[in-house]
Structures are given as C-alpha cells and as structure tokens.
Amino acid sequence: MQTEQLERKAEMDRVDLASEIVRLKQERNAVILAHNYQIKEIQEVADFVGDSLGLSVKAAETEADVIVFCGVHFMGETAKILNPSKTVVIPDLNAGCSLSDSCPAEKLDDFLTEHVLKNYFVIAYINCSAGVKALADVICTSGNAVRIVQAAPVDRPILFVPDQNLGAWVIEQTGRPMDLWQGSCYVHMEYTRDSIERARREYPDAEIVAHPECPQAVRLLADEVCSTEKMIAYCKNSFATAFVIVTEEGMLHRLRREIPNKVFIPGPTDHCACAECRYMKLNTLEKLYHSLRDLTPEITLDEPLRKLAEGSVRRMLELSK
Ligand code: 13P
Ligand code: SF4
Questions:
Q1: What does the pLDDT average to over 172-191?
Q2: What is the whole-number distance in angstroms between the Cα of residue 1 and the centre of ligand 2?
Q3: Is residue 273 part of a domain?
Q4: Is residue 119 domain-shared with residue 156, that is, in the same domain?
Q5: Do residues 23 and 41 share a domain?
Q6: Number of structural domains the chain divides into
Q7: Residue 4 confidence (pLDDT)
Q8: Spatial separation of the C-alpha atoms in residues 37 and 166, rounded to whole Å
C-alpha cells in the first residue's frame, strides 16, 4: 500500500477506535480522565483533561462506575484512594514515573525513623506511591504547593518529598526553609540553561513558560513558572502571542486546542526538539480501548494503606478550596 493509503487506513482505524471507546464508555458508565501529557487522540476522547490537581478533584467527585485514568500509575492510585468503591483502570500498568520511583516508601520510612527526633512535617508531591502518601502529613501538586507549604505548622521542620526542584521553587516562593528529598523528574531534567537560552535567541518575541519540576538554571530563564493547568490561563491572559513551553510535549495539544490564535513552541532539550515522557507515552488509543472493554489492568489497594493515604490527600483537597 502507498504511504498515503496507509495513513488514511490508520486514520480510519483511529476513528473507529474512538467511536468504539465512546460507545463502551456509555455501556460501562465510565469516565475517562486524561493528563495534559497524553497523546492528542486520547485527549480528544477524554471527558476531562487536566493537571494532577484537577484530575484528583474529578476522580473524587465522579459518580461514574468506572474511572479510566489515562496518565501514570500514581494518578490511577490517587483516584482509587479517593474513590475506592469505583473500578479504576489504567491503559498500561507499566506507566510509572521516575520521580515517584526516586522515593520508595521503605526508604522514606527508614529516613523518618532515623530522624524521628526532628518530628518532620512531611509534605509529599502527588507524584509518589500510595505508600509514600500514607507516610505523609499532606499531599501537594505543582498547582497548590505554595499554598500547602504556607499552611504547614510553623513549629515543625518540613521534609518535602520527592521532587527537589519543585521543593526549591516553593522555598523561593514562600521563604520557608524545607529539607528536600533528592528526587527529580527525568523529563524536566533534560532541559538545560543552554537549550533554553538557544530557544530565547531563536524566538526573541516568545515568552518562556516552564514547569517547576525544571532545574533552577532553567526556571531562572523563564517568564513564568507554573503547573500545566496554570499554563493555560497564563498563555490566554498574556499579551504575548507566542510561547516556548518548557514541559512535556503533550501539553502543546491542549494549549493549541484551547488557544488556537496563539503560537506554541516546544521547549528544546540539548539533544531533542522537545521532551517526551516515556511513561505517559505508553498509553495509546488501542490500550485505552482494551482497558475499557476488559476493565483491566485494575488498580487495587490494601484498605488500611488506602485509608492512611486518603487522609493526606483529603487534607490537600480541603486546603485547595
Ligand atoms: P501537573 O500537571 O500537575 O503540573 O504535573 C506535571 C507532571 O509531571 C505530572 O507527572
Ligand atoms: Fe513522572 Fe516526569 Fe513523566 Fe511526570 S513527566 S510522569 S513526573 S517522569
């Protein structure tokens, strides 16, 4: 078959898959939640596309019987923590997260035992396992981290896990000292001062908008540092008409769809024109279809662990109102 014919067939398959997904969704009384880093085709069939905070709120509130979470494992887990009576499935069980992996629950537990006299108040970024959430006092996302840290008790030292870059950014914003777990997101660590300076030279009229998971050298070059959801509002309201977006490339689909009159350029890394998260990109329309059809792979949690984790996630939701 010619390339053009093959492309048309692939397009037809996608259309069929998308309409099958919509049909199955009704049959199962399911809701599809998708993170801003998902591929365009998944964002288009989702009921809600958003950041970790928005998705957690939707997962907690939904009355659907099934939640299909198109994101990574810790996001599906958070949905199950908040809404345990629902069946929660994710398209690919291998969709993990380097940041979450950088702070295993056993390691955090050992650290807290070793430093028990410090009486740490533990704030965990939502990019962590249910085990870590169960050990934390409160959870935060990049969208509410400043607020959560400002609400922390003043008479206890804070341990912020697992993202050292987000933690350092929050210290800069709040002036509150914190001890930082040395974890990081491998995607945002791919941006460097050189790669962003190059983008500045190439697009001198564009504003640079970066995620707080980026290292400080990159954040310092940005016109705005914010969560993926806040990027939408920032780019809508800014007088600028072009933006270099320094986060995972999936974010560009949402920005282009919601703000079609402006130009969005992916932030370059040292060796690539954009950064992709290999975990987020494990999800495909086909896997989404299978998870909805077979209701697998399902996220399950031990009830005592889930309950402990729920306390710290609910504290975050309360503080975000
Ligand atoms: P937010 O969408 O909450 O900003 O998080 C970014 C991220 O890296 C999720 O894995
Ligand atoms: Fe984890 Fe980074 Fe991928 Fe987000 S982008 S899921 S933080 S590895």
A1: 98
A2: 38
A3: no
A4: yes
A5: yes
A6: 3
A7: 77
A8: 18
The predicted pLDDT at position 125 comes to 98
Where do the H-state alpha helices sit in the chain?
3-28, 40-45, 52-61, 73-82, 98-101, 105-114, 130-135, 145-150, 164-174, 193-202, 216-219, 228-237, 251-258, 285-294, 303-319
Peptide bond preceding 162: is omega within 30 degrees of 0, i.e. cis? yes
pLDDT of 46 over the 70 cut: yes
- Tell me: do 89 and 7 sit in the same domain: yes
Are residue 83 and residue 108 in the same domain, yes or no? no
> Nearest residue CA, atom 3 of ligand 2?
277
Note whether residue 274 is domain-resident.
no
Give the pocket of ligand 2 (CB within 6 Å). 72, 97-99, 127, 185-187, 248, 277, 279-280
The closest residue, in CA terms, to atom 9 on ligand 1 is 52
Question: Residue 117 C-alpha to ligand 1 middle, in angstroms?
Answer: 33
For residue 260, the domain's CATH number is: 3.40.50.10800
Q: Is the pLDDT of residue 287 over 80?
A: yes
CA separation, residue 51 to residues 58, 78, 147 (Å): 11, 13, 16
Q: Which ligand is nearest to the CA of 162?
A: 2
Residues 105 and 116 grouped into a single domain: yes
- State pLDDT tens for residues 105-115: 999 999 999 99
Q: Are residues 133 and 73 in the same domain?
A: no
Residue with tokens 């085709």: 41
Minimal-distance CA residue to ligand 1 atom 10: 127
- Give pLDDT tens digits for 246-267: 999 999 999 999 999 999 999 9
Say whether pLDDT at 231 is over 70: yes
Residue 10: pLDDT band (50, 70, 90) is confident
Range of the domain at 103: 99-185+305-319
Cα(41) to centroid of ligand 2, in Å? Answer: 20
Q: Which ligand sits nearest to residue 103's alpha carbon?
A: 2
Residue 305 reports pLDDT greater than 70: yes
Nearest CA to ligand 2 atom 5: 277
User: How much distance in Å is there from the Cα of 6 to the middle of ligand 2?
Assistant: 32
Position 79 in a domain:
yes
